[in-house]
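We were asked to recover a plausible sequence for a given structure. The inputs and outputs are reproduced exactly as logged, with field labels preserved.

PROBLEM: sequence recovery
POSITIONS: 179
GIVEN STRUCTURE:
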């Protein structure tokens, strides 16, 4: 990992004009280049101690509505900041928006799951319990026998860092960075 980070640093230094990286005074663009370097680390932007101060400054600046910093000589693009406070476990999809304006957000499985047989009985008029609601309970043939299947609804997980930006460096794969 450190060798990949070092290669990225060398690439940035080689593409950055020498007047920006030489001399005793730091240039305003140094911070932007540090941010790009740290964000390009596959181990995460704060894996190395040297990256924590510039990345923490980035989070503060973005949270205040400031623009993403620039770095001369490096081809990168960043999206506008986004907000996505909820997420679902693997195999589930988020339904109901982002929870703003009082809307309810839930996680629904992408395929039917086994549920209580009572939910598929002819006289069943409910769709699960208040704590465990189920959408579309139905009988489905599975391995030669019928099982009651449905879509049990779950509460979404809440992100500790709900804001994000998408960063593309030198045309490589876009990376979503949460803050």
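RECOVERED SEQUENCE:
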């Amino acid at each position: 990992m450190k060798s990949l980070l070092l290669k990225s640093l060398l690439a940035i230094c080689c593409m950055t004009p020498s007047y920006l990286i030489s001399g005793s005074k730091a240039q305003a663009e140094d911070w932007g280049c540090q941010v790009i370097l740290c964000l390009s680390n596959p181990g995460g932007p704060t894996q190395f101690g040297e990256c924590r101060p510039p990345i923490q400054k980035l989070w503060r600046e973005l949270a205040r509505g400031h623009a993403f910093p620039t770095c001369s000589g490096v081809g990168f693009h960043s999206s506008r900041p986004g907000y996505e406070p909820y997420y679902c476990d693997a195999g589930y999809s988020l339904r109901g928006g982002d929870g703003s304006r009082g809307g309810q957000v839930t996680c629904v499985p992408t395929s039917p799951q086994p549920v209580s047989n009572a939910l598929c009985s002819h006289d069943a008029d409910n769709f699960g319990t208040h704590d465990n609601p189920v959408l579309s309970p139905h009988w489905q043939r599975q391995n030669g026998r019928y099982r009651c299947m449905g879509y049990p609804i779950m509460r979404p997980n809440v992100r500790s860092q709900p804001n994000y930006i998408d960063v593309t460096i030198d045309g490589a794969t876009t990376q979503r960075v949460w803050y």
